[in-house]
Give the backbone structure.
Amino acid sequence: MRVCVIGTGYVGLVTGVCLAQIGHDVICIDNNEEKVKLMKSGQSPIYEPGLPELMKSCMESGRLDFSSDLSAGVEHGEVLFIAVGTPPLPTGESDTRYVEAVARGIGANLTKGYKVIVNKSTVPIGSGDWVRMIVLDGAGERQKEKGLAGTPIEAEFDVVSNPEFLREGSAVYDTFNPDRIVLGSNSKKALEVMQELYQPLVVRKYSDHPSLPPVPIVLTDLSSAEMIKYAANSFLATKISFINEIANICDRVGADVKQVAEGIGLDSRIGNKFLQAGIGWGGSCFPKDVSALIHTADDYNYEAQLLKAAVEVNNRQRTIAIDKLQQVLKILKGKTVGLLGLTFKPDTDDLRDAPALNIIQELNRLGAKVKAYDPIISQSGMRHGLTGVIVETDPELLADGCDALVLITDWTQFHTLDYAKMAKKMHSAFMIDGRNFLDRKQLEAAGFQYVGIGH
Ligand SMILES: NC(=O)c1ccc[n+]([C@@H]2O[C@H](COP(=O)([O-])OP(=O)(O)OC[C@H]3O[C@@H](n4cnc5c(N)ncnc54)[C@H](O)[C@@H]3O)[C@@H](O)[C@H]2O)c1
């Protein structure tokens, strides 16, 4: 099938590459010329395990191309994915201006034939109909320019909501091994096209677990599909805030949240995923999606109290590492704190709304010097959004002269650092383990005083 994916970020690029891998003829469009140039040269603009290799083989097979020319993309695609960003506005609402620009551009470039326009961006509930309206507006404006005002366009299209559930860091794996595929539309024809598109994934042809039953498809209406995405992320964020609340109580009563999480996680109604206590959730999705749902509820005169509490717990949790540093170091002014990890989770280069950013800001405010080492950020030279922190190129340089270390991101490589060597380079060897990730005994044997979160 001929596919066009518009927006080549974490979602768009992975979607485009994986659809090419399963046999479709894909063109990925981005309005960032630099990015397009980079991708055309075979390089991925984002860090995502497995993506560059797959991208290279799909380009070589001739099934994947990149361009900044939206009209060429619209002409090429039978299915047009909108996968641009929907960042949060200061009010908590989603900023849908990029989706709007793309929808208008699609409308202006529709010529003839039938197209399925797919919202893969996470968009506020009701956006499916809104996108339809904007596409028609775009088409109408183009007709006007051509002196054909009022003449209907020859092209036909339907809108589908197909929310994305991939996780940064395992995005390729998640695309080939989805838990479910959600398709929302009022058009039977569009839903049939989408099912055909995803058929190789549904039958697990590219899965790591080909013998599992087919991937469930949830066929629903536009608004329910949009709501499924918000509800899923809000549930997961709330689950983390829940275990963090339990961890804070554990800290006070002397219980161990890791054992508590194990004990409750074995209950099949609860499950053991997303029960790791720590310094809270962040990234480009949870914070903005929970805020957007709260905002939508507000628009309909409903106060989403549980979601608001999940956000409040998370905001407090982000600076819990500071409280712990104050407990061990007392005054932070004039002290040097080293952060192990910067990204909001391991195996990504994404710093959007990472807890590290709040911690750096707060430590700076309190007069501490902040250094950091992150396996990807330190190497790639990517420093966007980072101020008030010295980024070191290796963990031992990070430890040198520090009064305490704080583990921010649970990168696997942090299990095997030479902690004994690092402890010797520090003024005082305190480790605040913000993810309860390291082994207390190992750290203590290396000379550290270890402090966990509720552990
Ligand atoms: N990142 C995730 O893990 C994730 C997971 C699920 C859903 N989502 C949702 O998917 C959407 C995309 O997220 P992302 O993280 O990939 O965003 P991103 O910011 O990484 O990428 C967006 C891309 O769109 C491009 N773009 C913007 N305007 C454009 C235009 N007019 N024409 C062409 N390209 C344009 C940008 O240059 C950028 O490359 C968001 O709505 C997000 O909420 C993200």
Q: What stands out?
A: The longest strand covers residues 114-119.
